[in-house]
Amino acid sequence: MFPKNTYVNRRNILKQTLKSGIVLLPGNGESSMNYADNWYPFKQDSSFLYYTGIDHIPDLYFLINIDTGEEILFGNNATPEEKVWIGAPEKLESFAEKSGFSTVKPLDQVASYLKTQLDKGLHVHYLPPYRGAQKIAISNLLNIPLAEVEANKSTALIQAIVAQRERKSAEELVELNEAVNITRKMHEYAIRNTKPGMTEMEVAGALNGIAVSGGGGLAFPIILTKNGQYLHNHATTATLNEGDLVLCDSGAYNKMGYGGDMTRTFPAGKTFTPLQKDVYNIVLNAHNTAIEVLKPGIRFKEVHLLASKKLVEGLTDLGLMKGNADNAVAAGAHTLFFQCGLGHMMGLDIHDMENMGEQYVGYTPELEKSTEFGLKSLRLGKELQEDFVLTVEPGLYFNPFLIDERRAQNKYMDFVNYDEVEKFKNFGGIRVEEDFVITKEGSDLLGEPLAKTVADIEKLRNN
Amino acid sequence: MFPKNTYVNRRNILKQTLKSGIVLLPGNGESSMNYADNWYPFKQDSSFLYYTGIDHIPDLYFLINIDTGEEILFGNNATPEEKVWIGAPEKLESFAEKSGFSTVKPLDQVASYLKTQLDKGLHVHYLPPYRGAQKIAISNLLNIPLAEVEANKSTALIQAIVAQRERKSAEELVELNEAVNITRKMHEYAIRNTKPGMTEMEVAGALNGIAVSGGGGLAFPIILTKNGQYLHNHATTATLNEGDLVLCDSGAYNKMGYGGDMTRTFPAGKTFTPLQKDVYNIVLNAHNTAIEVLKPGIRFKEVHLLASKKLVEGLTDLGLMKGNADNAVAAGAHTLFFQCGLGHMMGLDIHDMENMGEQYVGYTPELEKSTEFGLKSLRLGKELQEDFVLTVEPGLYFNPFLIDERRAQNKYMDFVNYDEVEKFKNFGGIRVEEDFVITKEGSDLLGEPLAKTVADIEKLRNN
């Protein structure tokens, strides 16, 4: 946990912003795999964690009654019989002390407490739930029909929390750096140890192990694939062969629950082919160009479009595209090869606060999210501020289905040399991703640098 | 997948048993970690998998209308846009063909189909759901209030499925052997590579990696701890030191979804202390004694009590217990050190079919589960049959809280030398666990043998 004052201050700011009502933050429960008591690794709710610092304990509710000033943790300490199974975990009262509040009540009192407050006419603010069990709990506790739970979420609470969590403090940056360094270790391992003949799963398994050993586990399902042209293709039992490109997008949480998210693309054999090198350098150039312009005040949507233009210019040099690059980007022709967004916010969540809604996290009332193919997958568009943490992850993805579809639709005919593109239908995909914090003047890389030029990656492959 | 006939036969047997009504088998959805689209590894529902063979695809419903003979898979194939993200997965129609049924309908037709059947007065059988999202789905599809979903489960369906799944076929045993061999690899790695100075998490991470590389991932959260006296103590950031005993209880699924579950206890240093050796041998002796009597016809509760008696005899030799061993077990005095059950059924679930209810899986109307401390944690009590697969996992757990509590209660005074027991409050816990299939005459070990004597474990530690 951070020092007590961190949590006290975070809660004070929240209270000052909301001014009245009750904030209900449900902690997560255990998540069942294939029967009730067979659990996935426990993951605390990020906002619960942000305001209380309490991790690893399922079935807690934290409640701030802004009108009365009460801050109450509802939950149960281990019973004598539970000590047979789990020993004597730290008491909730001890966590309360470390978090700077004093009241702990048994779990079964949360319902009656809320009922009393609802009867008084107080408004209960809650975030949109993302697990079935949370939905059921909120429905029961607040007497809201299940189908209306989502609609009754508090946008005031969402906006207040986003405004706090989107700017990372110095102590959070220490944690994020650590998470990215664990993530970096996973990628260095993959680059050094992948060999032709191994399966995707074999390599992914080792990375999973590094993430767990790091203390926080996997931040998201590992993408480790020779079919990087499909954006979210998870590791399979496919064998990696000489000549394949391996796209690895993976990351870890650290012990404090902060995440890292990186991508490297490297050859399954010792070296890139000349063509792989050329395409790689186009992506890397877009990546570097984007990083150079990161600073407070620039809209990330502009950075995305700039990176897209660099991709188009590179593809034009390679003979796959033609015409004016600005016009191509304006027409969306780059989305034939770069179908997603340049990056996203990162913090306690890998797509930070994604469940609160991208319109609040990545956009503003003045800059709404586009519904166009490509831009609709850009999770972050708004003006950057100092202390934002985000990923930069341009890529080129030669998706054969999309190529066939767009060609059949006669789309982007002014900008795409489809005959040339046909030759890339077995090429795969390349992405280069790193994590940055926005500083007063620009940005800083999170974590220690890791090989990202063709030469440096080949050097790691050959060591 | 197994050959088509496997699934056709399994469904035919189910239909013959139930005779009429509709069987609704919901497949699992993705399970959200800390926002909706950040998922834990997908785990298919075991009964859905057993009757269809379809894994890795979320959001499917399989439905057998026994009265009309219809077998329908409700689900959606990837849309063109989804192919950008995941490529072109195998079509549902292809899985249907491999599974031996012909009808695939879009997901959104499951509700109207069921409504029509309910209107006709047909009974819909379903299993008790174990995820919030499943509960909500069943409530909506069958128009049952959420609070009554559990009560309306079909005990006829539960009993029919248990009768099928509890006896493993030859082709299932091949898979179970593979799963146990992946599990064995995890344990051999742990015994060979654990060193003083490493954290529990570091070792657990590597084992997690081996499980993922094996193709099916972790079958349950890894218990890897120097505090083995707490039965379900998961790996923490605690450092393993010379002199510590390391209890590792972990297992993997194989590619077909079958699980393995083993435990080994070994010294963090190179050798056991003389006292650790003595206690280890008591557990090993109980383990071996239990294995010797495994065969069709014997109640597993008897095996549990026999193993308990062996533990008492060993503890008596060691000076911790006294008096007649049979009387001690009858009085439950062994539960001061062995608080749980000797084993459980294993298959597609590690605690096989646990969510259907232990009264159906592990007991019979003639042999109900005890509510006494100790026996109430024995998941399997009933007569063994050929082709049952189960774990044998006796242990001795010196839980300081329980020792204090029982002594304060003056419990088991005729059988326990509490002054001697006090000296073991820092000893830890020891468990030895392997997996067996019941054969015509006895039992066979699943997987290749792994060191389990003190000498063999020390040999592995020193290689």
UniProtKB/TrEMBL annotation, chains A, B:
One of its GO terms (cellular component) is cytosol. Belongs to the peptidase M24B family. Its EC number is 3.4.11.9. This is Xaa-Pro aminopeptidase. Coiled coil: none annotated. Residues 2-135 form the Aminopeptidase P N-terminal domain. It comes from the Bacteria. Its cofactor is Mn(2+). Keywords: Aminopeptidase, Hydrolase, Manganese, Metal-binding, Protease. The keyword Hydrolase applies. It catalyses: Release of any N-terminal amino acid, including proline, that is linked to proline, even from a dipeptide or tripeptide. The keyword Transmembrane helix does not apply. One of its GO terms (biological process) is proteolysis. It is an enzyme of class 3 (hydrolase). GO terms for molecular function: manganese ion binding; metalloaminopeptidase activity.
